[in-house]
Specification:
Chalcone isomerase, 6 helices, 26% strand, single chain, alpha+beta
Length: 180
């Protein structure tokens, strides 16, 4: 009986030591996620309200000293349930009001955004990255879609950053230079 217990104990000890020796390499299988805003400087944060209700909180990051020049990133953290199609439609409406696209472009961009933007609930976030050649979108830190069209990227981010935005207080909050 002592031999059986001793061999079982030895086997358990061997497995434990093997697992322990492999532990430092476990992170290689699942590396820690890299921040999507790594290399960017955080600028301002503000709230967007519609009819007094908080819809989302927005935060702006820029890679350089000018938060209006790409590359930049804008994160919207939602505070309400919103259907993805409604996000796309609101974006098209804002771009139309800024006069940054013709009807054909707006239709095409609206269809692209409907495919990219998911339904959101409180706590979800969408991060848009404006690059010189287009835009990338992430939903809760997972890739959601890419639009390889510089004109789209300029028009889309103008919703928040253009001087003619429908939310000038939010724009001012986003463009506020960080302290320090």
């Amino acid at each position: 009986m002592w031999c059986i217990l001793n061999s079982r104990t030895a086997e358990m000890r061997r497995r434990f030591l093997l697992a322990l020796s492999a532990w430092p390499f476990a992170s290689w299988a699942n590396p820690a996620p890299v921040s999507l805003t790594a290399g960017y400087q955080r600028w301002g944060t503000g709230e967007f309200r519609r009819f007094g209700f908080l819809v989302y909180e927005a935060t702006l990051w820029a890679a350089g000293d000018d938060p209006l020049r790409p590359p930049l990133a804008l994160k919207l953290t939602y505070k309400r349930n919103i259907v993805g199609r409604d996000i796309a439609e609101a974006s098209v409406k804002e771009i139309r009001n800024l006069g940054m696209a013709d009807s054909a472009q707006l239709k095409r961009w609206g269809e692209l955004m409907e495919k990219i933007f998911p339904d959101v609930k409180p706590g979800d976030h969408i991060l848009g990255v404006h690059l010189p050649e287009g835009a990338r979108f992430f939903y809760n830190d997972q890739p959601a879609g890419t639009v390889d069209d510089a004109a789209f990227a300029r028009a889309f981010f103008a919703i928040w950053l253009d001087s003619k935005t429908s939310a000038p207080d939010l724009r001012a909050a986003l463009l506020k230079r960080p302290a320090g």
